[in-house]
């Protein structure tokens, strides 16, 4: 029996990383390590201000200090190994960082096949989705939680999932109804009401 | 109370109509997240965790536990039909499952693995039921230094066994510990890193971290995915032949044993047990050259190992209070929400709950067998629902869920923040399980560390004077050094020639 006989007509889809993927990954990886280096130093200063030791033995700053040293120390190690990788000859720069600076703590990675990369992510949709959730927080006090959630779902369906208006409105009304009856009526959870009298009937 | 009596009492809890319903809901959600590639068991558990605030303790934990082991059943469906593993532990199932589907035996592969998964799970539940209580009695002899050492061991093993950079793994532990310290100091009550915000004084909400790192971020990444899924094999005949079943007995028993042993190790990943089971089946086979062409033992062994692993991983949680994975950390947080601290004392302080959960695993697996054998075609239909629509619903449910706990809009903003952070960390291959484990265990690690120092008069060398604690800490350090130094290549498995380049195969 052939593949087609069984309806198996294709291999699983996957994303083969491009050179651009590798470049973006390497730069973002370095930026992340530098971020952790700065974060670690900030935590160390914050921990010291909290007092690391006191009469009881260890103070409230001890564990944050440990976290800060871990984060900052490894951020430093990671940053150095990635900077060394950038400075390596071109023939080596495409290889794993292990090839440049092999040691227990010095590892680098390149995008692996079938994993998400910076170029496979749809940043517009991702940003829209997060922006809609943030906007939701600000409209809740105005229109109330239930209606705001319906509007959020409508926005997600129409702008992020790019579905038709009819389907988007149906799913949005369904989400609102499920929230109102499921969480509000059945589970008895109080939700922020609207500041407008027009929508007060949706308060739970 | 002995184990047999405890199990009987547990069935009295698990078999109430209410708890059967919760098990069914958990199994359905578990299957759903297992079937849908890109949404893992942790995400499924994270999405339903807000409900645990309003549910009775037994029902809440039974539901989340059912998601945990139910997801393992769902992952194999896409592996067999589409050659797309839902989870890393289902990768091995594609090696023989997909070739079977190409030969027109997709239905047989699905039904046989449902039966062997059930057998592996039930055997493991019986062993857990009779081993957990004696082990919990032994665990009562452990004090703060030993608990501190055990939790450090758990974190080290998670980092060592995940096929990611050691630097990134330990960084995530540091970040998880730091996030756990935000809020009031547990001893003196002074504010730590709360920036004057009253919302942060009680700490970063657990749900914002869990749902941000596993629920919403998974959906956000999947929503933007431009991949086109592969075609799906048709299911023609479900009933296996007698030979299929007899051929699977040995591999199922071997897989169950392998999965159980690996499941006992905190921090171990299920994928290692399924790879080990596949290697074993190939080695004991009289025709190893046929592997890669649709050999039934190559799916029944790993699938039994996978389910056995999941069940066995409850033992470290129930006896020591140490979750071995991010998903179990979420389950542990559900226990804490219910006012129950997982650990050896649970068997005496909350016997109904712990035995009820153990007994519910039998009930849940019966439900899963029904969902996966006669009803498997229903799940195939669900695969046809556009993932982006489900994703948008997941985001809306997450927002409602996180808001319903504290009625706090700040929690939703934290969810957005952590979701964005999680997307970036995932794209940069930072492993998130160590972060979540460290966040969940952070308070207990700090507590046991400070208790130990207070008891020893502030002497940090006290950990080395406690032989058990010192031994565990040495093992923790050795696990990282040995496993990472010896791993020069990523985990690579080729079904035909099988090159498993992982510590487990050396």
In short:
With 204 residues, chain A is mostly helical. Chain A has helices at residues 19-50, 62-87, 90-93, 97-100, 123-143, 145-160, 165-186, and strands at 53-54, 57-58. Chain B has one domain.
Question: Which percent range describes the beta-strand content of chain B?
Answer: under 5%
Rg of chain A: 26 Å
User: End-to-end span of chain B in angstroms?
Assistant: 42 Å
Mean pLDDT across the residues of chain A is 76
Mean pLDDT of chain B: 83
Describe it for me?
The complex is a heterodimer of chains A (204) and B (506). Chain A folds into 2 domains: 1-121; 123-202, no CATH class. In chain A, helix 1 packs antiparallel against helix 2 and helix 6 packs antiparallel against helix 7 (165-186). The radius of gyration of chain A is 26 Å and the shape is flat. Chain A has helices at residues 19-50, 62-87, 90-93, 97-100, 123-143, 145-160, 165-186; strands spanning 53-54, 57-58. Chain A starts with 18 loop residues before the first helix and ends in an 18-residue tail after the last helix. Mean pLDDT of chain A is 76; it is low at 1-13 and 91-114. Chain A is mainly alpha-helical and 204 residues long. Helices cover 61% and strands 2% of the residues of chain A. Chain B has one domain. Chain B has 23 helices and 2 strands. Chain B has 506 residues and is mainly α. In chain B, helix 6 packs parallel to helix 13. Chain B has helices spanning 3-14, 17-35, 41-48, 57-82, 91-102, 106-139, 144-161, 166-181, 198-201, 206-223, 242-263, 270-284, 297-312, 314-320, 326-337, 346-349, 351-372, 376-382, 387-406, 409-427, 432-455, 462-465, 467-486, and strands spanning 183-184, 191-192. Mean pLDDT of chain B is 83; it is low at 489-506. A two-stranded antiparallel sheet of chain B has the order 1-2. Chain B is globular. At the A-B interface, helix 1, strand 2, helix 2, helix 5 and helix 6 of A face helix 8, helix 10, helix 19, helix 20 and helix 21 of B.
């Amino acid at each position: 029996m052939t593949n087609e006989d069984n309806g198996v007509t294709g291999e699983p889809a996957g994303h083969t990383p491009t050179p651009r993927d590798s470049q973006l990954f390497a730069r973002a990886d370095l930026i992340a390590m530098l971020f952790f280096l700065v974060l670690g130093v900030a935590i160390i200063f914050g921990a010291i201000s909290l007092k690391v030791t006191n009469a009881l033995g260890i103070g409230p700053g001890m564990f944050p200090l440990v976290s800060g040293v871990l984060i900052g120390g490894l951020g430093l190690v990671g940053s150095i190994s990635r900077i060394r990788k950038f400075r390596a000859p071109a023939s080596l720069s495409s290889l794993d960082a292990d090839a440049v600076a092999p040691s227990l703590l010095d590892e680098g990675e390149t995008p692996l096949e079938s994993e998400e990369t910076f170029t496979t992510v749809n940043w517009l949709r991702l940003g829209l989705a997060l922006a809609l959730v943030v906007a939701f927080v600000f409209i809740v006090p105005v229109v109330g939680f239930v209606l705001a959630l319906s509007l959020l779902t409508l926005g997600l369906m129409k702008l992020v999932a790019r579905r038709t208006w009819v389907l988007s409105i149906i799913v949005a009304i369904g989400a609102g109804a499920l929230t109102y009856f499921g969480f509000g009526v059945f589970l008895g959870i109080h939700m922020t009401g609207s500041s407008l009298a027009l929508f007060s009937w949706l308060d739970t | 109370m002995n184990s047999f009596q405890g199990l009987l009492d547990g069935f009295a809890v698990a078999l109430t109509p209410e708890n059967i319903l919760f098990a069914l809901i958990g199994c359905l959600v578990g299957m759903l997240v297992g079937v849908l590639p890109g949404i893992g068991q942790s995400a499924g558990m994270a999405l339903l965790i807000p409900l645990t605030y309003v549910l009775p303790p037994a029902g809440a934990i039974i539901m989340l536990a059912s998601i945990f082991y139910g997801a393992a059943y769902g992952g194999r469906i896409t592996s067999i039909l589409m050659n797309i593993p839902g989870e890393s532990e289902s990768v091995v199932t594609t090696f023989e499952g997909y070739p079977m589907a190409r030969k027109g035996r997709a239905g047989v592969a699905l039904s046989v693995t449902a039966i062997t998964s059930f057998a592996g799970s039930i055997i493991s539940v019986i062993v857990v039921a009779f081993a957990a209580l004696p082990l919990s009695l032994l665990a009562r002899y452990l004090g703060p230094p030993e608990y501190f050492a055990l939790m450090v061991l758990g974190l080290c093993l998670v980092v060592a066994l995940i096929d990611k950079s050691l630097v990134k793994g330990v960084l995530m532990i540091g970040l998880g510990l730091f996030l756990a310290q935000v809020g009031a100091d547990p001893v003196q009550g002074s504010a730590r890193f709360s920036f004057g915000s009253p919302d942060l004084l009680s700490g970063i909400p657990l749900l914002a971290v869990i749902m941000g790192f596993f629920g919403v971020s998974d959906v956000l990444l999947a929503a933007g995915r431009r991949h086109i899924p592969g075609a799906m094999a048709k299911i023609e005949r479900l009933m296996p032949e007698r030979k299929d079943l007899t051929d699977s007995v040995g591999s199922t028993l071997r897989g169950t044993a392998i999965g159980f042993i690996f499941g006992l190790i905190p921090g171990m990943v299920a994928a290692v047990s399924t790879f080990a089971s596949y290697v074993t089946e190939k080695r004991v086979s009289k025709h190893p050259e046929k592997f890669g062409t649709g050999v039934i033992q190559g799916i029944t062994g790993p699938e039994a190992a996978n389910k056995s692993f999941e069940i066995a991983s409850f033992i470290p949680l129930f006896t020591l209070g140490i979750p071995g994975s991010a998903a179990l950390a979420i389950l542990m947080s559900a226990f804490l929400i219910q006012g129950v601290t997982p650990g050896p004392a649970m068997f005496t302080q909350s016997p109904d709950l712990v035995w009820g959960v153990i007994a519910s695993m039998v009930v849940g697996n019966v439900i899963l067998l029904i969902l996966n054998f006669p009803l498997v075609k229903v799940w195939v239909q669900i695969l046809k629902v556009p993932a982006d629509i489900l994703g948008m619903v997941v985001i809306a449910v997450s927002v409602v869920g996180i808001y319903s706990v504290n009625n706090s809009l700040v929690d939703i903003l934290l969810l957005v923040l952590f979701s964005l952070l999680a997307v970036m960390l995932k794209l940069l291959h930072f492993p998130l399980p160590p972060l979540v484990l460290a966040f969940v265990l952070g308070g207990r690690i700090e507590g046991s560390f400070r208790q130990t120092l207070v008891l020893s008069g502030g002497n940090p060398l006290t950990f080395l004077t406690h032989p058990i604690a010192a031994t565990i800490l040495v093992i923790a350090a050795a696990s990282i050094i040995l496993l990472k130094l010896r791993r020069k290549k990523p985990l690579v498995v080729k079904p035909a020639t099988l090159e498993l380049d992982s510590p487990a195969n050396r």
